[in-house]
Design goal:
The complex is a heterodimer of chains A (about 400) and B (about 375). Chain A is of the alpha+beta class and about 400 residues long. Helices cover about 45% and strands about 15% of the residues of chain A. Chain A is built from 12 helices and 10 strands. In chain A, the strands form 3 sheets. In chain A, strands 1-4-5-8 form a 4-stranded mixed β-sheet. Chain A has a 4-stranded antiparallel β-sheet with strand order 2-3-7-6, with no helix packed on it. The radius of gyration of chain A is 22 Å and the shape is globular. The relative contact order of chain A is 0.10. With about 375 residues, chain B is an alpha+beta fold. Chain B has 3 domains: about 5-120, Acyl-CoA dehydrogenase/oxidase, N-terminal domain (Butyryl-Coa Dehydrogenase, subunit A, domain 1, Orthogonal Bundle), CATH 1.10.540.10; about 125-230, Butyryl-CoA Dehydrogenase, subunit A, domain 2; about 230-375, Butyryl-CoA Dehydrogenase, subunit A, domain 3. Chain B contains 11 helices and 10 strands. Chain B has helices at about 5-25, 25-35, 40-50, 70-80, 90-100, 105-115, 230-265, 280-305, 310-340, 350-365, 370-375, and strands at about 120-125, 140-145, 150-160, 165-170, 185-190, 195-200, 205-220, 225, 270, 275. In chain B, β6 (about 195-200) and β7 form a beta hairpin. Chain B starts with 6 loop residues before the first helix and ends in a 10-residue tail after the last helix. In chain B, about 55% of the residues are buried. Chains A and B meet through α8, α9, α10 and α12 of A and α8, α9 and α11 of B.
């Protein structure tokens, strides 16, 4: 047992950090650092830069642009990406739809979709949740009926993140209305320009426009756009949700946020001393740092295990990454809110200097509100507990 | 980065696991051991020696295994898993730690072979009535006389102190009561003239003593840290090693207690069904599991950092680990008793034994609040972003 990074791993960390800080424009990284919303062009530029280097999707197979990095290297990459405030490659392309197409798609589908997915020439969104199908995703009602060599899709999706930018959507739709629950669902790729699709923005409690409702009204899709077998889309969905646990804990991001919080709390005055010098506040920060360090070690244990065993049985500790990771992310937003204090109150949706200068406190409340989502999405923390109870504790 | 055990480590783990699982299979045997004159089983202690476990951290030249915190972790985890009461922490980790870091070659040669053979037990007489968790708070005095010293003062809750053959006494040579300098370390026989020990059982079934020292003379050959008065760095280092040790012990105890609880709620029936079929019980067990894994991660971290050459980094890491261990121990302990219901309240059942030891671990060598305060004062684990 040797719990330290090897010299090679440290050299690798240096290499990725140097690339991120020299090749990803500072202006974009600063936006991420202070919590400003990114423009579509910012995300595209960042991902294209990573793609050009061959680093947009390290966990993909090499022939589709992936790397042969070890799990530990992938962890270092993700941690540095987040620590350097580089926009994360679009999860819908890289962590969700891409791996599904690689695992279940035809050769033609791989050739058609993977490359533009990789460099974000095409933007994907996720058509899973519905008004009546959240945690109980398999109760979804959107239908895809076969007619004249096409699927005709009808229904409504919701919480569709950044659908306003999307070129494509991967949709779960019911292809066999008589089959029970998980059976009878198919995984279908839909061009967002197809007639019959309406995207309606949802304004969220942070004031932002991140999610949407997407309506499908007699949307005609080629049968070739089915991924995997008809009525077996649930296999794809399960694979997608279980794929790539490396980034889910967002350890690098929480580190970066804590580092920023400590910087700001070193400037904000509480009476005649900086807030950071206040014992009560400093101990609250330290308590979150302890939890984060523990989670980082937990993640490393999971990764080391993955690297060694290449087994399909995940380390039981992996299941806590989502729960604890989201709790810590939320704790950082609470601390930031506390640093901003009364200056959190002004609502400045479109200020150009949001997060900087006199408006340094502006992102605190929106981030706090926005981050409530992290314990809800991707399987709520209550669902995660059900999963652990069943899969790990054998209930 | 590699979390696997080497063959040698695996061997140590297997042998200590087997030995303690046998010895502690029955709580009646444990109760009988507690009634022995020493308060633990002399026979079992001899087995520790036979298996080489008492020599783990000592150099090969001194007859030890020349192993490190990781091997100690394996033993301590097994001790925790079995709620064992043997004086490994006091003799090998604390006493042995002081000898390793502060002993002269002559002192090591005189004492360590006996420790390894199981014929000499050590105890670190550090804590005082008022000192709480401040290692520099020392009122026991060491007055120079001739080529040696004379000790006067009182020590409290000396782990394993009631029957230790050799006491290692922390005493002040110079300066005010809480000065960081002016502290010495002295070897004193457990039955030396002027040493008065009041032994007792601790809450977790182990043994300790309050000890007074009245004009106890120490010859030059028994001075570990004298004139220089620089004992504090050694005490901090050994305390950190002990924290890494009890962190592993806590993980062993929490793991066993969690398993016991999950098994229990799967079989305990009320309202015609196993109570483990209720979601509220399942989620509680999951939260305990999360706390266990976070604690395990920090116990590894403590083990990794316990021998770090940079004392500032080492102390930050150890404090962080103790905070997590303390929180996890409290949560898992309390929830385990709650989920067991009445049976958790009896001494006839193992859950209570784990709970009591875990509760004491939280309070030893600095509780959660103490270490959180230290960590916050040291600037935490993450540096602020550059302006």
């Amino acid at each position: 047992m040797d719990l330290r990074f090897t010299p090679e791993e440290n050299a690798f960390r240096h290499e990725v950090r140097t690339f991120f800080t020299s090749e990803i424009p500072l202006a974009i990284r600063q936006k991420v650092e202070v919590g400003e919303h990114l423009a579509k062009e910012d995300m595209v530029l960042a991902q294209k830069t990573l793609a050009k280097k061959g680093w947009a999707a390290p966990h993909w197979p090499k022939e589709w642009g992936g790397t042969d990095w070890t799990p530990i290297q992938r962890h270092i990459y993700t941690e540095e990406l987040q620590a350097c405030s580089v926009p994360q490659p679009l999860a819908f392309n890289i962590s969700m739809c891409g791996p599904v197409i690689i695992a279940f798609g035809t050769e033609a589908q791989k050739k058609r979709y993977l490359k533009p997915m990789y460099d974000l020439s095409e933007w994907w969104c996720q058509g899973f949740s519905e008004p009546g199908a959240g945690s109980d995703l398999a109760s979804l009602k959107t239908t895809a009926v076969k007619k004249d060599g096409h699927y005709i899709i009808n229904g409504q999706k919701t919480w569709t993140t950044l659908a306003q930018y999307a070129d494509w959507c991967f949709v779960l739709a019911r292809t066999d209305p008589d089959a029970k629950k998980q059976l009878g669902i198919s995984f279908i790729l839909v061009d967002m320009k197809t007639p019959g699709i309406t995207v309606r923005p949802i304004q969220t409690i942070d004031g932002g426009h991140e999610v949407n409702e997407v309506f499908f009204d007699d949307v005609k899709v080629s049968l070739e756009n089915l991924v995997g077998m008809e009525n077996r889309g649930w296999d794809c969905a399960k694979y997608l949700l279980g794929n790539e646990r490396v980034g889910i804990a967002r350890i690098g991001m929480s580190k970066q946020r804590l580092s920023r919080i400590k910087q700001l709390a070193g400037k904000v005055m509480l009476g005649d001393k900086p807030l950071m010098a206040d014992e009560r506040f400093a101990e609250k920060v330290a308590a979150v740092e302890v939890e984060l360090k523990a989670l980082e070690m937990t993640q490393l244990r999971v990764l080391a295990e993955d690297a060694k065993r290449k087994s399909n049985m995940p380390n039981p500790a992996s299941s806590i990454l989502k729960i604890k990771g989201s709790e810590i992310q939320q704790a950082t937003t609470e601390l930031a809110l506390e640093v901003a204090g009364p200056l959190s109150l002004p609502f400045l949706p479109d200020e150009a200097d949001f997060g900087t200068g006199d408006h340094w406190a502006a992102p605190a409340a929106p981030a706090y509100f926005n981050f409530r989502k992290v314990s809800i999405y991707g399987g709520s923390n209550e669902i995660q507990r059900n999963i652990i109870a069943k899969a790990v504790l054998g209930f | 980065m590699d979390f696997d055990l080497s063959d040698d480590q695996r061997q140590i783990k297997d042998s200590v696991d087997r030995m303690l699982a046998d010895a502690y299979a029955d709580l009646k045997t444990k109760a009988a051991a507690q009634k022995e004159p020493l308060g633990f089983s002399k026979t079992l202690w001899a087995q520790y020696a036979d298996q080489g476990l008492l020599g783990i951290p000592f150099a090969e030249g001194e007859g030890g295994l020349g192993a490190g915190p990781l091997e100690t972790m394996l033993v301590m985890e097994a001790i925790g898993r079995n709620a064992a009461i043997d004086p490994y922490l006091s003799t090998v980790v604390l006493g042995g730690g002081i000898l390793r870091h502060a002993g002269s070659s002559a002192q090591k040669a005189a004492l360590i072979p006996d420790v390894i053979a199981g014929t000499r037990r050590l105890a670190l007489a550090q804590q005082e009535r008022q000192s709480r968790y401040d290692l520099a708070d020392v009122s026991t005095t060491a007055r120079a006389e001739g080529s040696g010293y004379v000790l006067n003062g009182e020590k409290m809750v000396v782990l394993g102190g009631d029957s230790a053959d050799t006491l290692i006494v922390v005493a002040r040579l110079a300066g005010a009561q809480r000065d960081r300098g002016g502290i010495g370390l002295f070897l004193v026989g457990g039955t030396a003239p002027g040493v008065k020990r009041t032994g007792y059982a601790t809450q977790d079934g182990q043994r300790a003593a309050d000890i007074t020292f009245t004009d106890v003379t120490v010859g030059a050959e028994d001075v570990l840290v004298g004139k220089s008065g620089e004992a504090l760095a050694v005490l901090e280092r050994v305390t950190d090693e002990a924290i890494a040790g009890i962190a592993a012990e806590a993980v062993g105890a929490m793991h066993a207690l969690h398993e016991l609880t999950v098994d229990y709620v799967k079989t305990r029936k009320q309202f015609g069904v196993a109570i483990g079929s209720f979601q509220v019980i399942q989620h509680r067990c999951v939260d305990m599991f999360t706390m266990l894994e976070q604690a395990r991660s920090m116990a590894y971290y403590a083990t990794m950092m316990a021998s770090d050459e940079n004392a500032t980094e080492r102390r930050r890491a150890i404090s962080a680990a103790k905070v997590q261990i303390g929180k996890s121990a409290r949560f898992i302990g309390e929830q385990a008793i709650q989920l067991h219901g009445g049976i958790g309240m009896t001494m006839e059942y193992k859950a209570g034994h784990y709970f009591k030891r875990l509760t004491m671990i939280e309070l030893q060598f600095g509780n959660t609040d103490h270490h959180l305060r230290l960590l916050a004062k040291a600037g935490g684990l993450i540096a602020p972003a550059a302006a």
